[in-house]
Amino acid sequence: MAFISLGTPFAELTNHFQRGVDKNQMQIDVLLSILLENDLPQLPSWESEVTDSKVSPFSDKLLLFKATLLSSATAGQYGANLASVFRKDLGAHYTRVIAEELLYGEDSVNLMIKHQFSDQLPLAKESS
Q: Exposed e or buried b for every residue in 42-69, given b needs 16+ CB within 10 A?
């Protein structure tokens, strides 16, 4: 997501995308350290696929939608992993990153609504 933050004219969106980069890097670092501690193979990296272009080929609307979609998919995958892990230390990490992903996804949706990229989601009726 580092390349994404370069193409948007909105500082708020740049900060949001950079927050996503930082969040994802922290999650990778934590999980990679667990793999290394247990002498397991490291995760593959796709850093070579990122270009040095300063212009985003995608609209802010699409990028925010993708951030929301990827965040919810990641939270779901971490939930499936949490359900199948029997180590307490991994369970604690998965619980934390699920919460981080859901908060980031919620912030992405709120930015989509704020910038009128999406309509307000239906809300539950308030009880009286």
A: eeeeeeeeeeeeeebeeebeebbbebbe
Q: What tokens were used for 80? A: 């499936």
Tell how far CA 112 is from the center of its chain: 15
The pTM score is 0.77
Cα-Cα-Cα-Cα torsion 28, 34, 48, 12, nearest 10 degrees, comes to: 10
pLDDT tens digits along 88-112: 989 999 999 999 999 999 999 999 9
Task: Render 6-52 in DSSP notation, one character per residue.
Answer: HH-S-HHHHHHHHHHHHHHHHHHHHHHHHHHHTT-PPPP--GGG---
Q: Which two tokens stand for residue 91?
A: 């369970």
Give helix then strand counts, H and E, for the chain: 4, 0
Distance CA 118, CA 112 (A): 5
Q: What is the dihedral of CA 7, 43, 100, 62, to 10 degrees?
A: 30
